[in-house]
Specification:
The chain is an alpha+beta fold. The chain is built from five helices and six strands; from the N terminus they run H-H-H-H-E-E-H-E-E-E-E. The chain has a single domain, classed as Roll (Nuclear Transport Factor 2, Chain: A). Helix content is 27%, strand content 30%.
């Protein structure tokens, strides 16, 4: 049993180190300069117990906060309660030539970009499959999500989100996020990432 926990712990540690080493901020220039975006004020709300008391709860909240009809403000205050201080978001996308590029964002930068891109649009995202590796109070989640423009509409795209979580004895926190926006036509997902 301890050997399995050690292997899982090594896998999680390697995933975190790989995220730090292979996706530095310098990779940002691959996607061109960032445009100036309006600053979204998020306040300092208190976390909802149902959002942070279980792994299922925090993953559910992670997707719910960005989902909603056109014109509805997203739940950025609620979103801010899910993450540890100074969390980083690494967004991996393909550029016009098909080369993969990575950008590292603060939580505020992530909110400002997301709010600008979702402004006036209906967007719904939910998890369809999850791979979980746990070692004690540390959890690595690979979450396959689908997004659409209506709650029950056709799937417009998929992403695979890599979330590092930790339990502090009272609640779960998201310590890091890497999001792959997958073009499933060019890159079909392996069976282990599908429902």
């Amino acid at each position: 049993m301890s050997e399995i926990v050690l292997r899982v712990g090594s896998y999680i540690g390697a995933a975190i180190v790989a995220g730090i080493l292979f996706f530095p901020q310098a990779a940002d220039r691959n996607l061109g300069p960032r445009r100036h975006l309006p600053h979204v004020s998020i306040g300092k709300p208190t976390a909802l117990p149902e959002d942070v008391s279980t792994i299922d709860g925090i993953i559910k909240a992670y997707y719910e906060v960005v989902s909603g009809p056109a014109g509805q403000p997203r739940q950025w205050g609620r979103d801010s309660t899910l993450y540890m201080f100074n969390v980083r978001f690494v967004i991996i996308q393909e550029d016009a030539t098909g080369a993969a590029a990575a950008r590292s964002l603060t939580h505020q930068e992530f909110i400002d970009e997301s709010d600008a891109s979702l402004s006036g649009k209906a967007f719904y995202e939910h998890e369809v499959h999850r791979i979980t590796h746990r070692a004690g109070n540390i959890v690595h989640v690979l979450s396959t999500a689908e997004h659409m423009s209506a709650p029950d509409g056709p799937v417009a795209g998929r992403s695979v989100d890599s979330l590092e979580l930790f339990w502090d004895g009272k609640r779960w926190w998201i310590a890091g996020v890497t999001i792959w926006d997958i073009n499933t036509t060019k890159h079909p997902l392996p069976p282990e990432f599908l429902p």
